[in-house]
Prior knowledge:
By secondary structure, this protein is mainly alpha-helical. It folds into 2 domains: 1-45, no CATH class; 47-170, Tetratricopeptide repeat domain (Serine Threonine Protein Phosphatase 5, Tetratricopeptide repeat), CATH 1.25.40. It has helices at residues 4-24, 27-45, 48-58, 62-70, 75-78, 81-95, 100-113, 118-134, 138-151, 158-170.
Amino acid sequence: MFNKIxxxxxxxxxxxxxxxxxxxxxxxxxxxxxxxxxxxIFLYFRNEIILLAxxxxxxxxxxxxxxxxxxxxxxxxxxxxxxxxxxxxxxGIIFSQTNLTQAEKYFKKALKLGLTMDYDVAMAKLSLxxxxxxxxxxxEATMLLAEAKKLDKNNMLTEQIKMMxxxxxxx
Length: 171
């Protein structure tokens, strides 16, 4: 909703007013204002629209996720680099249901921009491996599956990786 620079300016102004409240002796008001400014600092690092899109994705609502993502008009200017990565990651998941070429483009861009969590990187590589396998690029799919297996530290994707390896043997 707010520009990323504006969020930092608002947080700075609130912190300045909190300092004034401390100076006046209103300790409670100062503490509350500092906590309020932390919300804007948090939203600088985690974009509120992307958070809402992830909530829609958790409910398997791809149209709702797409609706929230379309509210971001200019992702290069409005989002930090990692947020742009997750923006493309979510688009990749949405398009993986319909258009594999478009999904592959979004997943590759998300990996290039960077994702914070190893699980998300593993999921993106696993999806890319599935796309490569469907396009009959076995060597690339094998390499991506190995990377995804290495990144899956909590063994959350083990079943999907094993299933894809079985399918690869059939090709």
